[in-house]
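Before the break, one more example. Copy the sequence into your notebook; we will annotate it together after we see the structure.
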Amino acid sequence: METGELEIDGVRIAYTRRGKGPPLVLIHGYPLDRSIWDPVASMLESDFDMIIPDLRGFGDSEVMDARHAILAYAADVAGLMDRLGATRAFVAGHSMGGYVALALMRQYPERLMGLGLVASQMLPDAPDRREARYAAAQEVLAKGVGPVAEAMAPKLSSDEGIQATVRAIISRQRSAGLASALEAMAERPNSTEVVSNFLMPMVVVHGQADALIPVERGREVKIALPSAHYVELPRAGHMPMMEDPGGVADALRFFLHPLDLSSARSKQP
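Here is what the structure looks like once it is written out:
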């Protein structure tokens, strides 16, 4: 396993690289960091060469004093792939990381061997949700990350042990990183059209008990792209990679043999 930092267009991006096989980029969600992927990554070391970054402003990556668009996070990931010699890769993102993966699909389609969405969605925010994100950004700048950790942990999972873990992860983040991400998510575009026209393998994983992004949002992706490998995990909420890492690992292995696994564990919405 390799852990390091690289400067990508003036931003210091931290990452972990582990495993052997075709490249797979795993992108964390808000307000977390790359450590959420550890349970899944440990199961995939013989399947993929995994590149697992901290997005700018999160974990060990640099915080920038500027507003960012989702495309900025995607550009960082593409630049990291370049520096690590991964010309093309499978890319899977959790929640906000899914929005970043969709931005990669939109901006760098030639770089993707396949796309995975884990507890994510393709639709933009409704106007009221957009305004709530901007208000939340101002609140985190004023009050810090503590209230975010306390409020979000129960929504991320019903498992008390996982709640304690994610509370600790959120508590070590920085206010400026969270605020920038909230504003970036508020302005993300509708990705329905690019999903519908995607020609490479796609994996969609959603927890049936997701309290933040309802399972219906995952089912909508399957409807938009019927060829997608769609998996619902009955015991998972918004943190499937921690609540059911085996289920997520199995789903991501679809990238290796999409024809052989197209019906395994797949469920029509």
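DSSP finds eleven helices and eight strands in the chain. Residues 260-269 have pLDDT under 50 and may be disordered. Try to locate both features in your own notes.
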